[in-house]
Design goal:
This protein has 250 residues and is of the alpha+beta class. The protein contains 8 helices and 13 strands. The radius of gyration is 17 Å and the shape is globular.
Length: 250
Amino acid sequence: MDVAAYLSRIRLSGPIEPTLGNLETLQRAHLTWVPFENLHVFHRRGVATTPEWSVPKIVDHERGGWCFELNGAFGTLLEALGYSVKRLGAVVLFGDVAAFPVPDHLTLQVQLDRPYLVDVGFGDSFTKPLPLDSEGPHDGGTGQFGFAFSGDQTTLLAFEDEGTPVPQFRFDSTPRVFADFDQSSHHLQTQPTSRWTETPFATRLLDGGPDRVTLLSDRIKFRRDGRWNEQPITEAQFPELLARWFELTP
């Protein structure tokens, strides 16, 4: 992998030593410049789980993707920069994929002075590494996040404004390889009623967050200073807004 080209894609330059501060910088930069989007899936172009697919898609073709691509590629970059990375299989605990019986989300554990959960492929979620050896709550950059531990199972929690913990996804400590996600990837991109295949979307941080832009088929949303503003759009406006805010074509 061309590390310099990948860093250039996320508007950074090396050398970048494997430290916690640099890990947060890398995570925020990736979330800012590489969109979480489903355009290949929505248009039935087919996607794969390996870095041989995801890294060129992100770096050479300047696209985004979903968790198998974004976290798969980002973990590969982190390893090339000297980080110790473990790929974990998670089960999403909301939406239409919660009942799928195999891991349907790829997330990352990065070992520094302690283990951290890192993710650039879960949409509007935490934007800084979360210490995995403490329940929290922890500052996730966009709000408070924590963990619930039960045996070898760990559940990521997002705390609402009232302090109510909302489960996000559950995972264990088993190291995964990319092939472990092939079945989920195939299932999610071939189900006609899946949220991945029903409507196109793209979302990314603005300037490292927590501000964000999210484009859907019928509206565009902006979060600035913690408040969301939403504007309706037409089908004809979607490609122009996709190009303006995400530098993407459908």
